[in-house]
Amino acid sequence: MKTEVINLKKQSDHFKSNDMNKIKEKTTSLLVQNRLQSLASFSSIEHRLEVIREKNDVLWINDSKSTDMGASCFSLENLHENIIWIVGYDENKRNLDIVTDVAIDKVDQIICYGHFETEIKYHFASKIKYAYKKELNEAIQLAHSNAIPGQIVLFSPACTSFLNYKNFRERGYHFKTLVAQL
Fold first, then answer.
1. At what angle do helices 69-77 and 97-106 cross, to 10 degrees?
2. Are 165 and 174 in contact (CB under 8 A)?
3. Whole-number percent of the chain with pLDDT over 70
4. Alpha-carbon dihedral of residues 133, 138, 144, 150, nearest 10 degrees?
5. How far is it, in rounded angstroms, from Cα 90 to Cα 159?
6. Contact 103, 82 (CB under 8 A)
7. Where are the domains of the chain?
8. Hey, which of 60, 128, 155, 175 would disulfide with 53, CB 3.0 to 4.6 Å?
């Protein structure tokens, strides 16, 4: 059996640009399909990228299970742009570097709730609109009044729930109850 060796550089010189575009489109399409399937599998878990309501063409997503910055980063990466991100206070130092690029690309406003938080404020202050509210219901009301059609309000606290709630589930149910009252 004869093995043929193909010189990829020479082969690529013979591809027409539209052939390359077709290959690129197919590859991109497969990547997008895989990402959507991945998101669908996560959103079937309560409190993890859970779509809870669409009101006035604004999508409300409960991601209370995101108890650290890495989990919130994953959520932001899996949503399209125009996001209002409701994030909680955390006593622990957070690595904001892991979320910086995706937040700058996709987040229109950050609303922090809980104890006054300066780490997020100063990290994003000149790059993303920022607001602080003491209570979650106030943060939701602000997001509701600021949201415009086509935006996503993402509740992804990036912190533990223990300061105000028994666990992330209780926090997520509280968020869902407040949003249902809008």
1. 30
2. yes
3. 76
4. 40
5. 5
6. no
7. 8-40, 46-180
8. 60
Task: Let me know: does 157 contact 137? Beta carbons within 8 Å.
Answer: no
Smallest CA-to-CA distance from 178 within 150, 148, 138 is with 138
Q: Which helix (H) or strand (E) is 84 found in, with range? A: strand 83-88
The pLDDT, as a whole number, for residue 44 is 59
Q: What is the pTM of this model?
A: 0.75
Tokens representing 98 are 């892991």
At residue 37, the pLDDT reads: 54
Give the up-direction half-sphere exposure of residue 28: CA atoms within 13 A in the CB hemisphere. 6
Both tokens of residue 11?
A: 């082969």
According to CATH, the topology of domain 46-180 is Protein-Tyrosine Phosphatase; Chain A (3.90.190)
CB 105 within 8 A of CB 81: yes
Which DSSP string do the residues of 86-126 spell out, in sequence order?
EEE--SS---THHHHHHHHHHEEEEEEESS---HHHHHHTT
The model's pLDDT over 29-43, given as tens digits with 9 standing for 90+, comes to 454 455 445 555 555
Q: For residues 5 and 7, give the distance between their C-alpha atoms in angstroms, rounded to a whole number.
A: 7
- Run of H or E residues at 129: strand 129-133
